[in-house]
Specification:
The complex is a heterotrimer of chains A (about 80), B (about 350) and C (about 400). By secondary structure, chain A is an all-alpha fold. Chain A has a single domain (about 1-80), classed as Orthogonal Bundle (Non-ribosomal Peptide Synthetase Peptidyl Carrier Protein, Chain A). Helix content of chain A is about 50%, strand content about 0%. Chain A is built from 4 helices and no strands. The relative contact order of chain A is 0.19. Chain B is an alpha/beta fold and about 350 residues long. Chain B folds into 2 domains: about 5-205, Thiolase/Chalcone synthase (Peroxisomal Thiolase, Chain A, domain 1); about 210-340, Thiolase/Chalcone synthase (Peroxisomal Thiolase, Chain A, domain 1, 3-Layer(aba) Sandwich). Chain B is built from 11 helices and 11 strands. In chain B, strand 7, helix 9 (about 260-270) and strand 8 (about 275) form a beta-alpha-beta unit. With about 400 residues, chain C is of the alpha/beta class. Chain C folds into 2 domains: about 5-235, Peroxisomal Thiolase, Chain A, domain 1, CATH 3.40.47.10; about 245-395, Thiolase/Chalcone synthase (Peroxisomal Thiolase, Chain A, domain 1, 3-Layer(aba) Sandwich). Helix content of chain C is about 35%, strand content about 20%. Chain C contains 13 helices and 14 strands. Chain C has a 10-stranded mixed beta sheet, sandwiched between helices. In chain C, strands 2-6 form a two-stranded parallel sheet. In chain C, strands 11-12 form a two-stranded antiparallel sheet. In chain C, helix 10 packs across helix 11 (about 295-310). Classes of the chains: A mainly alpha (about 80), B alpha/beta (about 350), C alpha/beta (about 400). At the B-C interface, helix 3, helix 4, helix 5, strand 3 and helix 6 of B face helix 4, helix 6, strand 4, helix 7 and helix 8 of C. Chain C: Keywords: Transferase. Chain C: This is Beta-ketoacyl-[acyl-carrier-protein] synthase family protein. Chain C: It comes from Gelidibacter salicanalis. Chain C: GO terms for molecular function: 3-oxoacyl-[acyl-carrier-protein] synthase activity. Chain C: Pfam families: ketoacyl-synt, Ketoacyl-synt_C.
Chain lengths: ~80, ~350, ~400
């Protein structure tokens, strides 16, 4: 579980080009969007592609992302439950 | 009709034009197929959260625009107008290659979103939270001139008082390689590298002491070598100025077969010292915005850097500068400035 | 009164002429269907407003040599621009100072995406290297029409053509030109289909603008142009004026690179500016041709902006993108042509596929063809990058 969280943090930083962040800067429960890490709707779409490509989970409605991408912890739980890859 | 003045000019180019207070003193010699711009320290102008999605052209554009506003001591312009010949070609190539490489799967939105031609103008507006008039011109070698002419129109028709206007192009990698290849296959092709850069200006209908006036400009799609002199004369007559009054001609020479147009214009201006600049920054569709930057600096400083001189002598007093640019015999533009 | 419009030409999924477009609009007949001309993995998952003519068909109709290097964007543009000049009865182009302003977002992308990997080696493909940039289609059309004065191209995403029309009006007002052909052209491309797919805003069904259950947009392709002429030319040539461009406004939402703000600020400002320039009050507007892309975000934001401008008295409105699909850079001029048809016919056109009003606003678009008195029409075009533009057309 911790490994997945670590992996997700690395992927988020790389995929979203968060140059000023390191894995240590993102706590498991940090809010990713809005006031937290400052991610926005374009980032949500990037993460949806990551879910599909790396974990075989397909979302059809971008609104679903709102809950799933709340924090790294929530995202890791969601992936663990449904991953196909 | 309102007069139009230049309140500031800022350029990012292959020379030290952005971070230096000098004026083309330490020239970097450029050669080869392509020449990138000297990039500023973007962190001074763009927050890292904003810059993380930006390609070269957007970063250059936003930085140059920010500094142009600072120099003019202007917080919010009444209009933001940009010109770009190739648009956001880096992200265009990136998205296109992802489509090809991944066979239309697992595509992400960022490079698509950032590939639209109006990205630079949009990002400047977004950064400033500027809800004013916003437009982007994308017509090859008159992309910047179209933007400048629109600025002139909105000032004269009193839709705006202060306009931020600029030209920006980035090299990219793939299309430019093919363009260079085609160019090099032609013995009379462009003799300078392909380049990139961003030059931004604040133009205003408000007079300031020692302000540089944009007297007038003309843009024309098609002119023959034989009729370009007539076009020039029509333009000068319209603006009630003698050809002999032009102190400096800044030409867009790039060494190709179409330089003959510049010869024909130069001949008409008996007292003008002719300058060129593309040998210093390369050729690109909005390179002429760098030409306007040099004109602004020359009129302000009353000094001509020796590396700009193509023909004629240095001058002690410079009042009128005419800029003339064309690309492959098409897309002609005249810009007349007065101190 | 504004700037006179004396001619128009159009090609879109609902017709290859103004007359055909009118027939489709009056019959509530949409042109949206299954993609045919482009090879893409997603063809089964999208609906598009595609023009039935192939590039080969267009080449023949335009009497171009077979080895030309027009992209589809250029072919469609030339087709519509020629029709606009014909409609304005213009034969001798050099009689007056004439300009050409065209809008595009894709430019030559339809060919670049086919030949990018052959550019290095295939001489046949190399002719399309120079046709990639956005100005190329404009230049080719201008050359074919023998327009040699001011020629330029505008690209502000989905508001592009509205801005082209606006610049044309300014140039006429400034007396820099006597006559100007303004509009835009965008062909469908794999690039845009995939791009909008990444944004997850393309519907697999027929788009339903302003509907509570709208699922997104259908992309379309089109080209259309208007001929604007100065009062001097109108008098001298005794021209028939189709309608007047009486107002225009351009503002930026400055909210997000792609999304529209919750309060529709950019749209609100653009409409306000256009009304002011036209010297009209909101109650003077008889019909609104909305931007109405059918994405959840746009239609909500635009509805709020409409409420802010028009209060409780929102005029009849509809989105004709339910006929043509979203034709991107061309949308502003396609809808300008439809607005002028509406003024000429004193008839407004329906918003197809609408069932339920969105709960946040309760706004109900017009859902059938309605005959009514129409004096002033407001048309909206909004784009990525927060670019918002509004045009107002008035009866001649």
């Amino acid at each position: 579980m911790n490994e997945l969280r670590q992996e997700l943090k690395e992927k988020i930083i790389e995929q979203l080009n968060l140059e000023e962040f390191t894995v240590a800067d993102i706590a498991d429960d940090d809010v990713l969007f809005g006031d937290g890490l400052g991610l926005d709707s374009i980032d949500a779409l990037e993460l949806i592609v990551m879910l599909d490509k790396d974990y075989g989970i397909q979302l059809t409605d971008p609104k679903e992302g709102k809950e799933i991408f709340k924090s790294v912890a929530v995202l890791a739980d969601y992936i663990t439950e449904r991953r196909a890859k | 009709m309102k007069n139009v003045y230049l309140h500031s000019a800022v350029s990012i180019s292959a020379q030290n034009t952005f971070d230096s207070d000098g004026f083309l003193e330490d020239i970097i010699s450029v050669s080869g197929s392509t020449v990138p711009a000297k990039y500023p320290n973007y962190r001074d102008y763009i927050s890292s959260s904003a810059s993380r999605r930006m390609a070269t052209g957007v970063k250059m554009g936003v930085s140059a625009a920010t500094k142009a506003l600072q120099r003019a001591q202007l917080g919010q312009p009444d209009a933001i107008i940009t010109g770009t010949g190739m648009g956001c070609i880096e992200d265009t190539e990136k998205f296109l290659n992802t489509i090809i490489d991944n066979n239309e799967e697992f595509l992400t939105p960022t490079s698509f979103i950032q590939s639209t031609h109006n990205t630079v103008g949009a990002q400047i507006a977004l950064g400033l939270k500027c809800k004013a008039y916003n437009n982007t011109y994308v017509h090859a070698a008159v992309s910047f001139e179209s933007a400048l002419m629109d600025a002139q129109l909105v000032l004269q028709q009193e839709e705006a008082r202060h306009v931020l206007v600029g030209g920006v192009d980035e090299l990219g990698s793939e299309i430019i390689t093919h363009m260079r290849h085609m160019e090099d296959a032609n013995a009379n092709g462009i003799q300078v590298p392909f380049g990139e850069g961003a030059s931004f200006f604040v133009v205003s209908s408000e007079a300031k002491s020692n302000a540089i006036q944009l007297v007038d400009m003309a843009v024309c799609s098609t002119v023959s070598e034989n009729t370009i002199q007539q076009k020039l004369n029509d333009f000068l007559i319209k603006n009630e100025i003698q050809a002999s009054a032009i102190d400096v001609l800044i030409s867009g020479r790039n060494g190709d077969a179409f330089d003959s147009y510049y010869n024909n214009v130069s001949t008409e201006l008996e007292n003008a010292t002719e300058l060129h600049y593309k040998h210093l920054i390369g050729e690109f569709y909005t390179a002429s915005s760098f030409g306007l930057w040099t004109a602004y600096e020359i009129l302000n400083r009353q000094d001509i850097p020796k590396d700009l001189i193509y023909k004629g002598e240095e001058k002690s007093e410079i009042k009128y500068i005419l800029l003339y640019n064309q690309f492959k015999g098409r897309d002609h533009s005249f810009i007349l400035l007065k101190r | 009164m504004g700037v006179a419009i004396t001619g128009m030409g159009i090609i879109s999924a609902i017709g290859h002429s103004v007359a055909e477009s009118k027939t489709s609009l009056l019959a509530s007949k949409s042109g949206i269907g299954t993609l045919k001309h482009i090879q893409t993995k997603h063809s089964g998952l999208i609906k598009v407003g595609e023009i039935s003519l192939s590039n080969a068909d267009l080449t023949i109709q335009l009497q171009l040599p077979e080895d030309h290097n027009y992209t589809r964007t250029g072919l469609l543009g030339l087709f519509a621009a020629k029709a606009a000049l014909k409609d304005a009865n213009i034969n001798a182009i050099s009689q007056y100072r004439t300009g050409f302003i065209s809008a595009t977002t894709v430019g030559g992308m339809d060919m670049t995406e086919l030949y990018l990997k052959q550019f290095a080696t295939d001489p046949e493909a190399q002719k399309y290297i120079q046709s990639h940039h956005a100005g190329d289609s404009t230049q080719k059309i201008a050359d074919a029409l023998n327009i040699i004065e001011f020629v330029t191209t505008i690209s502000t995403a989905c508001s592009s053509a509205a801005n082209a029309i606006m610049l044309g009006a300014r140039l006429i007002k400034a007396r820099k030109l006597d006559r100007v052909v303004v509009g835009g052209t965008d062909a469908l491309s794999k690039f845009t289909i995939n791009g909008f797919k990444t944004l997850m805003i393309q519907s697999d069904e027929l788009c339903a603008p302003f509907d509570a259950d709208r699922k997104g947009l259908n992309l379309g392709e089109a080209a259309a142009y208007l001929v604007l002429e100065s009062d001097k030319v109108i008098v001298k040539e005794q021209k028939t004026v189709l309608a007047y461009l009486s107002g225009y406004g351009n503002a930026n939402d400055a909210f997000h690179q792609t999304a529209s703000s919750e309060n529709g600020e950019g749209a609100f400002l653009a409409m306000k500016k256009a009304l002011k320039l036209a010297d009209l009050n909101p109650e003077h507007i008889d019909y609104i041709n909305a931007h109405g892309t059918a994405t959840p975000n746009n239609d909500f934001s635009e509805s709020i902006a409409l409420q802010r401008v028009f209060g409780n008295h929102i005029p009849d409105f509809s989105s004709t993108k339910s006929f043509t699909g979203h034709t991107l850079a061309a949308a502003g001029v396609v809808e300008a042509v439809f607005s002028i048809i509406a003024l000429r016919e004193q008839t407004i056109f329906p918003n197809l596929n609408f069932k339920t009003a969105m709960p946040e606003t309760g706004l109900q678009p017009v859902t059938s063809v309605v005959k009514k008195e129409v004096q002033h029409i407001l048309s909206n075009s909004f784009g990525f990058g927060g670019n918002c533009s509004t045009l107002i057309f008035s009866k001649s």
